[in-house]
Amino acid sequence: MRKSAFLFILLTFSAFVAKASAVDSLWNNANALYAEAQYERALEGYLEIEQSGTESFDLYYNMGNTYYKMQQYAYAILYYEKALRLDPDHADALHNLTIVREQCIDRIEPIPQFFVTQWIRKSYKKLPPGTWSVFSLVLLALSLTFVLLFVYAGSIRLRKASFVLAVVVFFLAVTSGIFALQSKKEATREDIAIIKSVVSSVKSAPGAQGKDILVLHEGTKVRVLEEAGEWVRIELEDGRQGWLLLHEILFVY
Amino acid sequence: MKKVIIAIVSVLCFVQVSAQGRFSVEVPGVVAMGERFRLVFTAIDLPHETFTPPKIQNFHVLAGPTTSTMNRMEYINGRRTQSRSVSYTYILEAYEPGSFTIGEASVVSDNVTYKTRPVVVEVIQGADKPAEERTKEQATTTEITDDDVFLRLSVNKKRVVKGEPLTATLTLYTRVNVAGAEDIKFPEFNGFWSQEVYSPQQIEWQRENVKGEIYQKATLRSYVLLPQQTGEIRIDPSEIVCVIQVRSARRGQSLLDDFFDTYQTVRKRVISPSVTISVRDLPSGAPPSFKGAVGKYSLQTYLGRDSVRTHDAVSMYVTIAGEGNINLLEAPAVQFPLDFEVYDPKITDDYKSSDGTFTGSKTFEYPVIPRSHGTFTINPVVFTYYDIHTGTYKTLRSTPMALEVARSTESNMYTGVYAPTHRRKVESLGEDIRYIRTTAPVWKKKGVYFTGSVYYYTILAALLSIAGILFSWLKKRKERKKDVVRVRNSKANKIARARLKTAGAHMKSQLFSAYYEELNRALWGYIADKLALSQAESSREKIEALLMERQVDEELIKKYTDLIASCEFARYAPDPGQTEKERIFEDAVAVISKMEQVLK
User: Of A29, B151, B304, B600, whose CB count within 10 A is highest?
Assistant: First the structure.
């Protein structure tokens, strides 16, 4: 299923694919440099690909690895987060992210969510948005087929079965469609950021008059609630809030 | 158990003389002006020597060289050794102050020339009498000043890096007659690792010039110190109570007093000044293999055996030789192949202190037991030390070593009993990120998603419209089919009546077979039209089933099918007669009209 999604994207952006050979050679070079532990140079290659407006899960994943090897943990987390936006349930990326987080100082206990919400979040994070979309279209086609069968089938039994199937499959199609939209919404969020500076103090108000209320360290994930000049209001995963300088964070998008 | 016999006999010529000869010079380093002193050259175990005297300038030679010979023979545990020494003695007198060099003297023995080094003698003007004699003059007073006896702790370096060895020497200086010492408190070296390297049983006095005065100097203790902390470390003072003999001044001197001196014992506490050592920390940027070794070292590694069998022990030796804080060296980490059982290293020391540092070697023996067979490579041993001279970290690396491990032959020695192989849990050694992805990915444009895009909705719309088109097409087809059924249904009675009419005409004109055929067709055709069956589909069973489904009276169904059966039978049977034909005709008309009422 995932392959078919990729195939679809491949076909749709065929004009774009023409450019891919140059990108592929950059990609191979950077990978070779990484293998030789020349991380700075490998990173240059990856950044060039990224700046050309191309992306893929693999690119972000490799960049995360490179930054980790260069011990720039904030950037490593940033790129693993980016990779996970394109493939939210990738085992390797999740594993590496856990390891990088071990290097970070701040331990933040997220507010526990209602178990149904948690379960739904977990479900739609199982697949990337594109795959969910393809799923929804295929399921819809299947459901419509069952509707036709239900209406025009000769035997009563077949009609009964196709009615049930049509309803179930239609429900699944709608669910995948919603999951796709939700997953995409999650992947295109612009309010998630990572703390970049090694130590940064969170103030109660923007500007100098603010009192220091928290000290955060490199690699901590925050949600940006609003921006005011060079200050941003952030919220931690445990719900605490404060103001930070804009240049101390990296946005994940 | 030592039995020593010393004999001063010159006859014992048959004893083989050791070839290891020595030629040395002995002279006090400091003398007072006008003092007479001895200059002695000693040749030990140099047979048939010829002495070439040194050049002596700036001194008066009062006597000499006088030659004296000493033969010595000793038995130690039944072994006899003999030595012979010849000494040439001069009596010199210093007449002017300054530092003067007494040139080299040489001895030729069996065509080999032995030379002494030139020695420097310092002549001091200030002290016109040597120390031993002064004590007599001081007799008038029992007052011992701090200048008369003092203690010093000298160190060879005051600025060191952490771990760099230095020597501390505790020295007693005196110009009075020190008979003994009590209540000695030696220094405690807090912040240092210390080791006594010199602690004489018997104090040896030497002369030394201290600020123009001749003092008797004795080295009490000597230590090698290794700083373990950084910063300014103070060495606390040490104390000695000296027992000094002073000639007592007595009133009413008698004549005898000059011959029999009476001495008085005076106790004097002397305290050494404290010394502060400034210890710098080692520079940053130490490689991870650095474990505090400071000095200058070399590294050597070797294996006890090159090839072993599995489960046999083999040792790897790592020898670190050189100078520095050898005593504190830690065992370097050796990375053995993962399937090796490694035991704690055994450490063998071989070092001594010299010139304020330790020189020698330390050998680490790592016993290992290979648990699987194959050819293994033991990774290079990495040892890093801080080089004091260059002020840098230096890393030594040994060459990787190969170890051949053959399959053990002993594994099957437990006869008949199942010997389990060494199964173990696989343990994680460490954690790292997973490796990068290397296959070429499928690239997509940044920020472009299929979900919610035009493409998605286009496909959605296309699906729905395809479904709609299919739906309507199927609906139309059904309609059309329904029409056909209705037409057939409505025309069924009409056609049946027409056929019955034809059949009636055939009956009248005595066309016996055509009559039955027409009647049969009327019956079949009517029911097929009514039930919308094609000719192929129609059979008596099917018709019965369909009519039952439409809840037609069973009796009527039976009548109808019987009628069809009798028509078919009659077609191939002999003519049953006019009355029978008429009866069947009437029956057919009645059944069809009855059926028409039921089915409509």
Answer: B151
